User: Fold this.
Amino acid sequence: MDGTRPQPLTDTQLDRELERALGIDPSPEFLARVRTRVAAEPERRLWRLAVEPLWALGLAGILMAIVIPQFLREPAVPRQDGVGQVARITPPEIETPRDASRPAVKPVRIRERRAALPAQVEPESPRTTPLQLGPVLVNEDERRAFEFFVAAVGNGQVPEEAVKASSGESREVDALSIAPLEIAPLPSLARAGQEGEGQWE
Amino acid sequence: MDPARTRGSAAEELAREFEGRLVESSTLAVRVAYSVLRNREDAEDVAQEAFAKAYRNFSQLRDRDRFRAWLVRTTWRTALDRHRANRRRAAREQAGDAEGRELAGETAHPVKAGLQVDLEARERAEHLWRAIDRLSEKLRVVIVLAGIQGHDIKEVASLLELPEGTVKSRLFAARQQLKDELSWMAPDHSR
Assistant:
């Protein structure tokens, strides 16, 4: 021992030693062996790998076809061109008596007018109307007609026969003929008891 | 378009990609396995197994960096498993033998396999491997990967999926420990 501390390896020397120790190359047969091993793997695996993305795409397409139309579907709003609109009911016209010889009250005459369709239906424009929910579920004209009717009844302007006819009092109900119920004995019970006897013996 | 032909071409494309990865990474896998096992045949067996696993999972490993990182990890783990199994088997066969003798025997094996190095180089390699074995696993894998194919810090970080700073500090610590233990190898030591 000379008493001096040995000089450590330099990085370069260490790297050289490591490279020398790890400088192992695979044998020439290695690649062939791996190829053989991989070829022995089931063929369908590669097929499955290739088809998996297609399955995923198809599934995503089906889901989109189901989900997206529900989001895009617009509410059923009345069309502005009048096509398909329900016939509107105009308020009733109440005529007052002209002379004393005629009955004091004249039956209410309700006239229905079909909404005039436009002469020429324009091509349907893109449906971009936002969702509009009407506050009243009853047609406004019907509501007004009903109020007129109630007011006329209150004023005695509606003939009594009409009120009765509308209330259904004049209808006659045919008598129901119900045949009396007959309760017959159940003969099958006795037979069933006989059939079950000794089944598990 | 014919679906069967489409599937066939997709499978061919995958097989072609895998072949490219195999050719490119075979040396890396064998060397990683060899750094654990110190035996060429065992190392090739382990690397082959790792490639078979990679093939089975290739749909998730088509990215090059991802493939190589996965391959290094899998090869390293498989090699460690094989090494432990070898040790258990050796312990059963030669009950009572010291681990040092076993290591020496394993290290000597590749020399017999035809590396044709001289006795001095063989002795140096044995000492180097013993010093590497004394490193912790975290330091060992970093120094081994850095020593393979001249990987720089960035490449090692990519292979281990670690931050470069972590790799740098571990590499520094591993180098220091190895340099201290192998100081007798320095050319001016004999003076």
Q: What stands out?
A: The mean pLDDT of chain A is 68. Chain A touches chain B through 34 residues (CB under 8 Å). Strands of chain A lie at 88-89, 112-113.
